[in-house]
Amino acid sequence: MLTVLAGLLALAATPVAAPAAASDAGYYDAARGLSGARLKGALHDIISTGTTALSYRKVWDALKVTDEDPSNPANVILVYSGTSRSKARNGGGRGDWNREHVWPQSHGPFDTRDTPGTDLHHLRPEDVTINSGRGNKDFDNGGAPVARAPGNRSDADSWEPRDAVKGDVARMVFYMAVRYEGESRLPDLELDDATTHGGTPLLGRRPVLLAWHDRDPVDAFERRRNEIIFERYQHNRNPFIDHPEWVDEVFG
């Protein structure tokens, strides 16, 4: 009896992968049962096939759908500050929101004519001033509090987002490091454990991003966003939202 009870308790403590989305059926078949470099390669092929690239201008309209405030359809949620702001306030002026590249363009480099520069899986709305403050900094813990963005911290070479989106940020970065592997004259984006590599295809810090992924699990906002990007815009998915357990297999 004690042996059976111990077995049941061990089973209950075993992590269970998040259920796949309805539109995920069959999408990852080529990756099943793989791990490490083989899994990363299979995922790269899957999320790079049959995709549609947006123009940078069309990204404005797409973000108004992907990042819509669930409580106010006239607004979007800004990624770092968490503020709800009018969709009509997109632009470059004070009080406007613009297009934050979670993987900075200089960490490639790439520009907004390239597919990485218009990839919705790492583009999010953010206040113009806060976006400028983040700049091309790597991700890490620590720093001084960021004005007008409660919960965010920053220092000379790193940015720490608020707790509610730490995992979101990590999974966007993981996606980019799998999606872009140096093909078609695009950069080979990779993670590292440093905060001083602006101007190269590296972004840090990997151990911190892994910890953020564990601390902030996938939520409904991320799942909805992933579905919209797949169904309406790019026709590819972020595998680390659908299968969070693959993060450790690829990057752990």
Detailed description of the structure:
It is a single chain. The N terminus is likely disordered. Helix 5 packs across helix 6. The protein has one domain. It contains nine helices and eleven strands. It comes from Actinoplanes xinjiangensis.
Outline the secondary-structure elements.
Layout: H1 2-13, H2 36-47, H3 56-66, E1 68-69, E2 72-77, E3 84-86, E4 97-101, E5 123-127, H4 128-134, E6 138-139, E7 144-145, E8 153-154, E9 158-160, H5 166-179, E10 190-192, E11 202-204, H6 206-215, H7 220-233, H8 239-242, H9 246-251
Parallel strand pairs: 6-9, 10-11
Antiparallel strand pairs: 1-2, 2-3, 4-5, 7-8, 8-9
Structure in a nutshell:
The protein has helices at 2-13, 36-47, 56-66, 128-134, 166-179, 206-215, 220-233, 239-242, 246-251, and strands at 68-69, 72-77, 84-86, 97-101, 123-127, 138-139, 144-145, 153-154, 158-160, 190-192, 202-204. It has 252 residues and is of the alpha+beta class.
Provide the descriptors you would attach to this structure in a database record:
252 residues; alpha+beta; four-stranded mixed beta sheet; 36% helix; globular
